[in-house]
Structures are given as C-alpha cells and as structure tokens.
Amino acid sequence: MGYLERLESYREDMLKTLGESVSKPSVKAEAVKTKDGAVLPFGQGVQDALEHMLSAGAELGFDTYNDDNYAGHIEWKAEEGGDDYFGIVGHLDVVPVSTGWATDPFTMTDKGDGFVYGRGTSDDKGPVVACLYAMKALREEGCEPKMNIRLVLGLDEESGHISAEHYTEHCGHPAMGFTPDADFPLVNGEMGILVFDIARKFSGRPGKDDLRLTKLEGGTAHNAVPAYAKAVIAGSKEQYSLIADRAKLYREESGYDLKTKKQGSALVVEAFGTAAHGAHPELGLNAVSILMDFLGRIAFTSEELNEFISFYNEKIGFDLHGERIGCFFEDEASGPLIFNVGVANINEEIASVSVNIRYPVSYTDEQVLSGIEAAVEGMPVGIVTSMVQHPIFMDLDDPMVVDLMKAYKDETGDADAKPMTIGGGTYAKMFNNILAYGAQFPGEENTMHQADEKFSKDSFMKMARIYARAIASLCCK
What is the DSSP string of 406-421? Predict the structure, then answer.
C-alpha cells in the first residue's frame, strides 16, 4: 500500500476528527483565566479547539507543543533533527456566525449531497485535518523527513496576528512550507492588506423632539462583507410613517431587502445583504451600503450626521475597488485594489466605518493612504490605521513554486494550471518562506465566511493527497 492509498483508508477517521473540531465554537473572544491561573488569550472556545487538535495529533503518534495557549504545533520529528523545520501553517479560529444558517454552525452536518456543513469546515479546520492525516499516511508508509515537519496551529488568524507573532518569537520561522488557507493550484503572490477606520465626531446633539439616528450597527469583522445592518431612529409617528413609505418605495426601486418595524418608541430600519469574505466582496452584498444608501434619503436634524451619510454614499457607496475615494490602483499580477467596508457604528456622538483594503503587490500602503487622504481633503473625517500587512511575491521559477505546482498537477492532471496572486491575506505574510497552497479548488463554490459554509468530501480527500505529494517531494528523503 502506498501513502496515497493509505490516506484513502483514513477517510472516515478524517471526517470524524473534522466534526469534532467544528463542534468547538472557536470564535475569538476576550481573554479568560482558568481556576488554576492559566490565561486563555483568545477565550474558551478557541482554547477548546487547540486542545482538541493537539490531542488528535498525539493520538496519531506525533509530538505536540502548546505555545502558552497562543498557538501550538503537531510535529513529526526527523531522525537527524536540527533547528530547521518544514512548516504547514493553519489556523483553528473561525469568523463569527452571521444570519442565514439552515443548520447549527457548530454541528458538522452531512445532508447527503456530497458536502459537510459547518463553520470552519473549509476555513481552515478541514484543510488542517487533511494535512494532519497526510503526515500520518507518509509516516506509516516509512517516509523519512529531511527536517522536522510541523503542523502549526494558529489561533487568531481571522482577527489579528498575535498568535503568529508569539509563535515565531518562541519557535522561529520555517525553512520552507505552505499554509492551506487560500486557493489551488498555488498562490505565489498576496496583495497587501490595509485596515483603517474612517470616523467623525459630532459636536452637538439633537433635541428630544428632533428626528434622530440614535444607533446604527452593521457587520461583525472588517474582513467580511456584512450581511445585516440596522438603524434605530427616534422621531414622531408622522415621521415614522413617512420613512416606512420611503422604505417601501426604495425596495421597489432598488430590489434590495430593507424592512422597517416599530420597537418601543423607536423605528428600526433593517437591511439584509449577503455575507462574503472581504477578499471577495463581489460574491456578497454589503448591508451597510444598502442601509446608508437608504438613509441618504432622510433629512435628519443633525447636519453633521447628514454630511457623514452623504460622504459615505458619495465616496464609498457600493464601490468594490475604491473608485471614488482615491485608491483605485491595479497591476498585471494582482488586478485592481479590493475595497470592503466590514463594520459600521454610528451613535449620537460619533460615526465610524472599518475598511479592509487589499492593494496590488507593486504598490505600497503609503500610496493607498495618500490617495484616500487627497480624496477626503477638506472633509471633517479622520483616518485611523489599525493594521498593515505588506504584499509578498515569489517568482514562478523558484524551486518551491515548481515543486508545489508539480504535486498539484500530478494529482489533478490539470497541466494548464498556473500560480496566482490573491487579495486574501494568509499566514504567508506572518511566517517567512511559505506560500498559500489550497484548499479551494478552481471552479468550486467558495463559502468561506458565509452562512452554510460547506466542504466537499471528495475535495477533502483530493487536497489531502495533494498535500501528501507536496510534503513527500519537498521534505522526505
């Protein structure tokens, strides 16, 4: 039996391990302290996912390491050892659950249609499990690693980089490797990522009898297209009736899903869009933009509020590439810049929107910010940057690119496949000498970060075989 055949024999065990992992609601939360004084920096759910995967690795006969609950790894040690390691860098945290799920997001569900459903099945718990069993199949077939092979388990990839920084500080960077957290056949370039808030403080507060927007909330993460947004409006019954009539007309004219309802003494306006990954906003529909577009048709008492809403609609709106806010850049390797508003919050004191930008590999964050600042010059808004990740790019003739592409082509028979540059930000930006490699196959529906996230069982096994081939080629004697 070869390692590919042995891997096929693990199919049911792999699905069982994945189901157990999905059952851990590993959405990043506030740090907590256990009864024995241990700190769980990302909350109990993320900790449960880490402990489960380390336990699964140990049961399969690998060494495991917990990096102070900030990260961990499952390691296949080489006989000759050494400090270098081959890194397979995944993550166990997941994005928050949005509306629209037909099943329990944290119970992996098999509907009999060839897929398993659940949060994290495709991003990134499924690929992590596939890599773990690829390591097991190679070891059981007697393959000898040239260096230690580590399946690194990150814990806050979806919302930050503390986990990666802590791990690399304590354990160093890999000599080479990949992260199974993007697209096949191979990602040899990643666009830069820039996250910032556009905000405005309001100097005055309207009176009790004025038409007021007391609260607006939309979105849960800057790197996801918000599927839901709501505004709470205070005013008179006559004003509520007029707004409800305008909402009905807006629905008919735009086709967007917008609803109004009384809630106590207030009127609530709800907008419903479609969730998607922030790297692919074209696959979603931004509920914040729908709501702001509608609110632009209402004259609130606060002129400062009206100005901010107008600013949003005039400079952002439904744009996906920063066309009107001064940052439409593109290059041959990357295509156009990607612009996503992920979170919006407005109250009677301040308004802010969180923006996630993916910029082309040949540009810099300074160029992007300069373009935006020029476009908003003279407007009473401020820009506060919270994250910058610089782009990466590896040439097509690099030996690692060549070997990873060969493993993909040998398994799939896709001789025409070519590496790509993506807008998604992966751990390739946080760990030296690695590239994003799978796990999304060309032509398959991408449900990462969406309701009813799902994973093809056949693709699950196919990617595991690709990963086994790649590890064998790059790291086994």
Answer: HHHHHHH--TT---EE
| Domain 3-190+392-475 architecture | 3-Layer(aba) Sandwich (3.40)
| pTM passes above 0.85 | no
- Which of 168, 177, 181 is closest to 434 using CA atoms? 177
In DSSP notation, 421-458 reads: EES---GGGTSTTEEE--EEPTTS---TTSTT-EEEHH
Q: What is the pLDDT of residues 152-203, one digit of tens each?
A: 999 999 988 899 999 999 999 999 999 999 999 999 999 999 999 999 999 9
> Considering only CA atoms, which of 334, 5, 42 is closest in space to residue 162?
42
How many other C-beta atoms lie within 10 A of the C-beta of residue 122?
Answer: 27
By C-alpha distance, which of 172, 3, 145 is closest to 71?
172
Contacts of 75 (CB under 8 A, 6+ apart): 62, 63, 64, 65, 85, 148, 149, 150, 151
The CATH topology of domain 193-389 is Alpha-Beta Plaits (3.30.70)
Range list of β-strands (E), 77-191: 85-91, 109-110, 115-117, 148-154, 176-179, 182-183, 187-190
